[in-house]
Amino acid sequence: MGPHLDDHTDSALTKLARILTGTSHKTDPSKESCLRTHRGESVIGHAPVQTVDDLEVAVEAAKRAQPAWEALGHAERSRIMLEAAEALDRSAEALAQLVAHEQGKPLDGPGARFEAGGCAVWMRTAATTPLEPETVVDDDSGHAVLNYRAIGIVGAINPWNWPALIAMWQLAPSLRMGNAVVMKPASDTTLSVLAMAAIVNQVLPEGVFTVVAGGGEVGAAITKHPAFGKIMFTGSTPTGKSIARDASDNLARLTLELGGNDAGIVLPDADPKAIAEGLFWGAFINTGQTCAALKRLYVHDSIHDEVVAELVAFAKNVPMGPGYEAENLLGPLTNRGQWNIVNDLVEKAKADGATIALGGNPDADAPGYFYPATIVTDVTDESELVSEEQFGPALPVLRYTDLDDVIARANAVDVGLGGSVWSSDVASAREVAARVQSGTVWINQHGTLHPLVPFGGIKSSGYGLEFGVEGLKAVAVPQVISG
Ligand code: NAD
Question: Which of 30, 212, 277, 359 could lock 372 by a disulfide, CB 3.0 to 4.6 Å apart?
Answer without folding.
Answer: 359
